[in-house]
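hi! just following up on the protien thing from before. the input was this:
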Amino acid sequence: MKCLRLLKKNLNTGWYREHNYCNANKFTFKRVLIINKRTRYELERALCPGITKDQLEQIIKKRGSDFDRILLRHHQHNDFYERIACCFKNHGVEVETVNRTSYSEKEVEWADLIVIAGGDGTFLLGASLIRDQNKPIVGFNTNPGCSEGYLCLPKKYSFDVDTAVKKILKNDFDWLLRNRIEVEVLGPNALDEVFILDSTKKSWCVINYYYFNFFNLIRLCSINKYHQPINHLPWKTKLPKSSFDMSAKIGQEYNIFIIFMGENVSSQTSSLLIHPEGYDKTIVKCSGLCISTGTGSTSWHMSINRLTEEKVRMVMELSGHPPNDEDEVACITKKYNKSLRFSPDDRRLYWSLREPIYSSVFPDPPGFPAGGFSKRVSVGSRCFSGCLVVDGTHWYPFHDGTVAQLYSSADKCLRTISFN
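and the predicted 3d structure came back as:
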């Protein structure tokens, strides 16, 4: 019980604070844009164009996947989407529908409200094109049985869509302003190229191609001391060029809640020069660095830092205070893991070293923690073939010599609807 009291003391010193909400100003929602999730069935059809449904069924079953379940989920999602659209139309609201391929800023400007029919991934897609802090977005989790949907409305509204729609149209809700990360990158040809991590575009094939041709890149660099971009790769989105001594900003282009930096190949050790505000500049070796907002704290941040019941039990036993029963272990574990989440409107960023290496030579200087809160973080790459991944959707090269500055600003928040 002493361990439990110590944990409660730590939880009350800033590890976890309640969400801060502001009252909803009166909004009139006359035009609603619904962004429809791409189902697994639709993805499989996109990856195998020109074949019949029976042929696709044989391909999927041969891989060992349950085709009937995939098709059932597809129909269930479409039924849910139709229910959302009908609820808004029944209240006299004009409704338009897009998917991930047809979604553009033109539709965002047209709509008074962006509605997500999907999960957290679709929510991030919808938020990525919202530049105006006064443009609200709300999400419905269309598969509450298999998806947490942290960014969406509570799961009970997945079974009672009409009530949720009525509350929205009556402005019976609170605003939750979700903080975003802004990223400035300084380095050789900073942000000249970006890969969109879309399975239908075979982006991972391109990234692997990029990595395994890095020796060719080194050969090219022997001519020029700065990295030269590879211009012949397919499926690559080109961004405006930037010189070595000019910084380029990611934050104005994409919605950013969580960022990963490290070696492109996860089996390699990532070497980074990290300088969070309030800490010393330190060279670390790890399996990558994750920087998260409160919104992103429910995903990779939580997975990196969470504890299992086995580890909690071992710590209690080694401390000389063995647990009284398994319920005590489960309670402490649950409270600690819950404390990892922090408020989406918190202006601070949380940085986490993934599997940090602690030895007689690293970190340099020693004593550097594995994570912490900072308002601003500077990260320099010492990676052989590094990457910077934004929200799991956009991949940038982050090679040796590139520096990223990460921070947040009050005028870049995302306005979301919350039933507190």
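The chain has a mean pLDDT of 82.
The CA atoms of residues 309 and 330 lie 6 Å apart.
cheers
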